[in-house]
Fold these 4 entries.
Entry 1:
Amino acid sequence: MKRVIDSRDKDGNNTWCYLCHIKELPPGKSQQFTIRDEKQSKIEIAVFNVEGKFHAISNTCKHEGGPLSQGILKGKIVTCPWHGWKYSIIDGRAPHKGGDSVKSYETKIINDEEIYVNIIPRNLRK
């Protein structure tokens, strides 16, 4: 299911964006979301639930734009469903030397039930 999300957290922090209730993304599943950055540009992300921990990366494969949220997840590596490119759901990096990377996003749980994502990619803050 694809959703466009624009709401922010209860503290008014505009870099954190509400995604969904944790029950909407059960363990072992992934979901695509469209969020908006500070300039209101759309960002497609894939969010994965691995044993109750939520990880977010760009939903768009670097090769030909395949939807990573529909990829095969083994451990913490997702394989693009179109041509088999692989990415870590933790940091967006390819698991092999010389591979392309996608952006990764920090997630957090608020009130023990709501999933939020930081709209600023992790690699931009390092």
Entry 2:
Amino acid sequence: MIKKKICVLGLGYIGLPTAALLASEGFLVNGVDTNEEIISKINEGKAHIYEPGLNELVRLTVKSNMFKAALIPSSSDIFIIAVPTPIHNYNNILTPNIDYVMMAVKSIIGIIRENNSIIIESTIPVGTTLKIELLLKKNGIDITKVNIAHCPERVLPGNILHELIYNDRVIGGINNRSSSVIEDFYKTFVKGNIYKTDSKTAEMCKLTENSFRDVNIAFANELSMICDKEEIDVLKLINLTNKHPRVNILQPGPGVGGHCIAIDPWFIISQHKLLSNLMKTARDVNLKKTQWVIDKILENCNSFKEKKGRKPIIAFFGLTFKADIDDTRESPSLQIIETLNKKEFETVVIDPNIKLLENINLMDFTQAINIADIFVLLVKHKEFINLNISKQLINKDVLDFCGLLEMKS
């Protein structure tokens, strides 16, 4: 296949790695974003987000003139839309907003040509790809002469560049021709399997994957709260239960974060309020778990104050929504820390992946262990595992919500 020009709209956690990877594969890539600071940084050869290997890949592809960033899209063969789909609270139901997606489509209408491909990688509600098809038709685009498909991303932060290549992909075209043409494009850099389907099934596929994970995490989180009431070690229980050949319970945590598992179930729930009871309950359980953690910390703080006559200093281990990344989107850890700050507790945070965050008092481990009274373990960063926390915090007041005390160095 002849290498083509690609325009990637949205240079965030998915768009930037995708753009840099495609440029490294020999495509001429124009990355588009509305943030001028992001554009300037990328054109200096620097990534504005942390992802292993990404900064070097951006540097090399910008230097080779295969990748450039701009505020405005340019004429291309393939357009990849990877803009955010935020959610809004409406009567306690979170509803997805596809405005950014539709704005991205509108921004390229004037430069779409015959045989162009438009790929939506943004997470979208079911039926959005067909809405995009209708929008293009209304604006005079001959749908029989362009290819349109939804190809949901399914990568894991911290391993994005690897998974963009090796994960299986699902392609949902508006017709068979669109699916086949866009499949040929992905085959140029994807080593995983590629599965073709219709656009609505592809849209539901991404939402289903993350809703399934949310439900399973909710089971573990609910179990952890029950075991606490019964004074049962939930991690030992899960380990024993998982000895059953057909049982695989996940590990509980302080809640669920990130811009996928904590968000995607709402895309289904908002469209099918009466049919999504289990998904809604799972969301409620995982949100409740975060509040339960806050309540547990406050119990310990009140007990400390009764004994010592002062409020404790609290050290939190981990700020991100999962281990070994710098992403705090929807992070339950961040919510917990901000709640304690609002209650005027003195808090310090140890997180090797975060360099600076407004209103967060970041500190290294040695400093924190010398001043803190209560230690709250929220994220299993590899650095914490290597420290052998169980030995470092012996005889300290420790609340472990992520299983760090079970880890051995």
Entry 3:
Amino acid sequence: METENTNTASDTQTAEHPSSSQGKVKKKTFLLGVIAALVLAGVLFYFFTLGSPSRQVLAQVNGEKITVEEFNKEVEKVDLPLRDMLREEPLQYLEGLIMKRIVLQEAKNQGITPPPKTYKDADKNPSSPDDHLIAELMKKQFPAPPVVTQQEIQAFYSMFKDRMEGKPLDQVAPAIEQVIRQGKQQEALESYLATLRKNASVEIDQIRLSKIAAKPPESNTDEDFKKALQSGKPVLVDFGANSCVPCRELRPVLKEVGKEYSGKASVLVIDVYKYQNLAQDYKVALIPTLVFFDSKGKEVFRHLGVLDKEKIVAKLKEIGMES
């Protein structure tokens, strides 16, 4: 009996009270909840401040950041189709933004400030503060136009005399002087900007830049071209390139015609840089060049430059496309 009483007492001392056990569980659950909340807050903070695609840094210019968001806003100001072309080759446009940032920094370093706004500004369309800073810096850097000597004018006239339509030197001298002066101004500006760029600290995230680059539109292949000429239907071939603005303006029209008259005619786009052999075979000197082939694969018409939809359709019908 004593042994039983001893065991019972021992069990009573080591056993936990139900309410105490529940309290520990609640405390543990609370701590886990706090940790989870902190982790979630950290993730949200990173995404909305540091990790958000729009806030990711594309480049740093003397410590100043150019983000994806800034890049996209600037690109949106450009008209189509050039906007799409810049998105496909973003480095070219980013370099322009970098150069603009460097020039603005130089203007501020030289103490140039935007003009104060007044009530009169509401009645007109003043230039932006950035444009003002750049203009003032250029005035300060190039206070006077470059000098053009009579010897330079004479040398220019002698070199290009065959293009002067028989006009004497004294008659064309003012125009020659202006051409030479503009050339000198351009050369001086390019040299100045090159020096600023060389002395600037610029870091470009090439990996991130490649990720935001849009995929350029695909063109047809030489095999597509051969099959189309053997299809027994009229064919329109646009010899062009993705880097050509008029070519890109033409693409939506060609796509619409190709879709609308699918099965009745073939509309192809051949990139002259990818398929130089075809461009040479068909003597393509300027782009875009539209070449029309009849149902036998024979060239029957060509047009240099952009052509509207109505004229394209009319020409296809003229060479045998069914209505």
Entry 4:
Amino acid sequence: MDTSRVTRSYLETLSTASLLELSDEYGIDIPEHLNRQFIIGELLEASNENFSDKDDLVETDKISQVENLPKSYNETKISVVLRNPVWCYVYWDFKKKEYTTYIKDPEFMGFSIVFMFFVGKDHDTPADTFEVPVSLKDRERFVLMQHPGFYVRAALVAKQKNKKSQLLVESSLLSLPGGLPDLSSQTLNKSVSPVLKLSGLPDILLAQYVNHRQSFS
């Protein structure tokens, strides 16, 4: 007998003996002389629970069949997002053919990420820049930002011997939160209030700037 799911109308057509037999299949302990309507109620409840469990299993199977995301989408692209007000997360990818062409070039010296800071979103000339060399296998980095209130753009470039760096792609412009201390050596070396100095925060910020200004993996 199919016990995957039953209905009240179906159970009403069964004899009491058949209801008790079905109860045994569901593992329901039915006391003697129990009213058949109570037996039907117990069977309906057990049937719904059984059906719900199977639904959960089906959903679990669907989740387990989801494939892992590809390591590359074969697209030369770079993106920058804020992790918090002072750290950003930058990730990039290459078109396979373009990537292969560069690394096989005898003049090729490696890839870098160039960060450009703009005073305003309509400015074309960056007020400051810094460069982060990356390995051939790198596809992501966390980078310590500076110049709060500025705009930042990241550019993926290929370094070539005796040639100008080749710009591969640029990210969209990202607005940095304002109201934070400017993370630059000149600013961090300036005098601060005694309370802030006592907290040790200036020393921490300066150490972060000196040791991790560019990036860490």
